[in-house]
Design goal:
Elements (H helix, E strand, L loop, with lengths): L1 H9 L4 H27 L5 H24 L6 H26 L2 E7 L18 E8 L4 E6 H12 L14 H12 L5 H95 L4
Antiparallel strand pairs: 1-2, 2-3
Length: 289
Amino acid sequence: MEEYLKRCRINLSDKSRLIQDSYRLETQFSLILTQLKACLLGGDCDSRSLRHWACGAAFHTQMLAHLSRLEEKAEPFSARAALDQYKQDLKQIIPAYRNYKSNTVSVVKCRGVLLANLDPSREVPEDGAMTGLTVMDKETGKSVSIPLSTMEADIRRRWKDSDHDAPNLDLVTTDQYAQAYLDHLFSSKGPLAELENHFTQIDERLGMQRYDKQSKSKNGRREMTKQRGEVQLSEQVEGNTEQLKVGAKEMREERATEYTDDAASLKLSIVETQPEERLSLTGRGSPSA
């Protein structure tokens, strides 16, 4: 993971080199996850290894999603395919992890006055009577003690609408208590359900990435259509302006032609009238001659 992030920083300004390094490291990372999965299914499925596999699977999916963005793909198909595979792998790993935890979790019944001193509301039980449970996990090195009063209150709440009497908790074996603890650990309210929900959230984010890509394409098409409309409008305005210029030029030429024709007609009329005037003047002057 650290090497991938380092290569991303180094090749941030070189997209082609970044894509090449991403493919190379993604292939190596995928192989490591496959080998780790084989170890988990082979019996070494402790909590630390499972946590590493889950974090690695999520990170590998993000690597493929990042590659899809770099290559400007419409949808992160590779990331979704990898995530589907990891979901199937998780269904195989969980039974192996439960088998591992069944060998690390143990339950011991507490007897005598050990837990009674922790619960002042209860009477001191007789020697040998069950006072509670202690659940221990050898993997984590932790343990927790549950007073009998707490267990009885929970049993009464669960059995209040039942026609049967509540069971005698002292008759329940420690193996049955351990299995009940594991059932809760791997139930829909346990930490394994949170891990499955994490993969579901990754899947939802990949769906949002696809939606964002489609929205970007739509926005790009809108922008392109808008630009085309602006170009067409500009061309139309320029065409109209050119037509107006040509029209004005033609009008000026027509007016100039009309003015020239009028001036020529005027000159012609002057030239044509001058001989008549001269003749009339000559005619008037001839008698006197």
